[in-house]
Amino acid sequence: MGSLKSFEDLECWKMARELRNEVKNLIIDLPEDEKYELKAQMRRASRSVTHNIAEGYGRFHYQENIQFCRISRGSLYELQDQLIVALDEKYISEEVYHKMRKRVTGCVAILNGYINYLKKAKANH
Question: pTM of the predicted model, to two decimals?
């Protein structure tokens, strides 16, 4: 990981942080009766992405880091399903859904790149 000084230097963490902040702003407008349901689930899933990237980075072992990144990826897909629920319940528009889906897909892609980097680094170690 050469020039990386912190998990905060990882592009996948930076993108996930932006997504988390977008989710925070999105869920403000969800109905009050979803406070302990969809709102809380979306908040937890979006936070889980950055939390697990950070925790994996701190493990200092490639395989553990990879496993935490896989958990982050799972949280991204969980968030994707929650966005579908929000769309189906008509809490968000098609436009917002597609914008957020694109953000999630981008996070998955860059996270997959980081996982592949870690796998190669592990193999060459």
Answer: 0.94
